Amino acid sequence: MTSRARPPRPASVVFLDGLLWLLGFWFVGELVVRTFGIPVPGAVVGMLGLFVALQVRRPGPRSATLTAADGLLAHLQLLFIPAGVGIVAFLAVVRDDAVPIVGALLASWAIGLVLVGWVVTLLLPRRGR
Amino acid sequence: MTPLLAWQPEATWAWLQGSPLLGVLLTLAAYRVGRAVHHRCGRHPATQPVLVAIVLVSAVLLATGTSYGEYSRGGDLLAFLLGPATVALAVPLHRQAHHLRRLLLPLLVAIPLGVVVSVSTGFWLVTLLGGDEQLAITMAPKAATTPVSLVLSGDAGGIAALTAVLTIGVGIVSAVLGPWLMTLARVRHPHARGVAMGAVSHGIGTSRSLADDPEEGAFAGLAMGLTAFSTAVLLPVLLGLFGA
């Protein structure tokens, strides 16, 4: 995770190390969640764990973990494609219930987005807005 | 004795259909096309790569008569990477951590409120518009990120795979129209915009926020994680209140 005061590692090793840290924190997150019956995905707990680790260790800008994370997040949309393609399995259902599905989805989305946006804006400290 | 070379297209096709290779290749290629289209259209929000890719892959599956089950042998391999990608959201958050203190109170109020509103409006609007209770339960957890929403839906008696589709749908709508709607509603501060995007549209909304502004994206990622957590806790309680 840290790259201070060490000779630079080759890109291939940086990638490997970064992936190891991400999978490692996911693994620990799953262990914690499952062992204690916490109703949260292990990856979210892993995210919180990595956040704390980054805050404590303060890795340099070229650290393996940061590099791997940036690479993965640049293609975050790719990872949602398979679930979205699931629409082909539900074309008939969506056609039959188009009004409740599309109507509720759009309205519920818009209400939620605007409400959360307003509440956060209202509660943000005035200074530096 | 088997000959060294044999012309056997049927066996090749049978192997391909059982292998994840086709699904992965098709998904990556469609995503690559989606990115190119997005770039060509001047990064127009309506050409989100994920949307273009889903349309392309779905068209190929329908045209070739390939079932979703056959495709998902490869799709599941890519979806596996959602695990490390979720962990990776700690990195943009780490870079914006100095803003966290002033967002503590807004987050503690807005996230649970957002979950209550998303779940209850999703549930009630489906019922109001003529959908049955199973469809309402299927809609309810759509604001949480896919790995969470589909598990919660299945546990509560909804159709898990359809919840995944609706979750992606809400994410795409938000990636396309979210920033526009927030500007219309005068939500201007990047922190407020990011939290709202993450709270209603998980990773897909977050990816749009990350592309628009790193600060907005960091808080979208955080809000996405907190929303997943709050939805997991609150969904059973809310559905119990609705008598479902």
From TrEMBL, chain A:
<feature type="transmembrane region" description="Helical">
    <location>
        <begin position="12"/>
        <end position="29"/>
    </location>
</feature>
<feature type="transmembrane region" description="Helical">
    <location>
        <begin position="76"/>
        <end position="95"/>
    </location>
</feature>
<dbReference type="InterPro" id="IPR005538">
    <property type="entry name" value="LrgA/CidA"/>
</dbReference>
<keyword id="KW-1003">Cell membrane</keyword>
<keyword id="KW-0812">Transmembrane</keyword>
<feature type="transmembrane region" description="Helical">
    <location>
        <begin position="35"/>
        <end position="56"/>
    </location>
</feature>
<feature type="transmembrane region" description="Helical">
    <location>
        <begin position="101"/>
        <end position="124"/>
    </location>
</feature>
<protein>
    <submittedName>
        <fullName>Holin-like protein</fullName>
    </submittedName>
</protein>
<dbReference type="GO" id="GO:0005886">
    <property type="term" value="C:plasma membrane"/>
</dbReference>
<keyword id="KW-1133">Transmembrane helix</keyword>
<dbReference type="Pfam" id="PF03788">
    <property type="entry name" value="LrgA"/>
</dbReference>
<keyword id="KW-0472">Membrane</keyword>
Automatic annotation (TrEMBL), chain B:
<protein>
    <submittedName>
        <fullName>Effector of murein hydrolase</fullName>
    </submittedName>
</protein>
<dbReference type="InterPro" id="IPR007300">
    <property type="entry name" value="CidB/LrgB"/>
</dbReference>
<keyword id="KW-0472">Membrane</keyword>
<feature type="transmembrane region" description="Helical">
    <location>
        <begin position="217"/>
        <end position="242"/>
    </location>
</feature>
<keyword id="KW-1133">Transmembrane helix</keyword>
<feature type="transmembrane region" description="Helical">
    <location>
        <begin position="46"/>
        <end position="65"/>
    </location>
</feature>
<feature type="transmembrane region" description="Helical">
    <location>
        <begin position="12"/>
        <end position="34"/>
    </location>
</feature>
<dbReference type="GO" id="GO:0016020">
    <property type="term" value="C:membrane"/>
</dbReference>
<feature type="transmembrane region" description="Helical">
    <location>
        <begin position="159"/>
        <end position="182"/>
    </location>
</feature>
<feature type="transmembrane region" description="Helical">
    <location>
        <begin position="77"/>
        <end position="93"/>
    </location>
</feature>
<dbReference type="GO" id="GO:0016787">
    <property type="term" value="F:hydrolase activity"/>
</dbReference>
<keyword id="KW-0812">Transmembrane</keyword>
<feature type="transmembrane region" description="Helical">
    <location>
        <begin position="105"/>
        <end position="126"/>
    </location>
</feature>
<keyword id="KW-0378">Hydrolase</keyword>
<dbReference type="Pfam" id="PF04172">
    <property type="entry name" value="LrgB"/>
</dbReference>
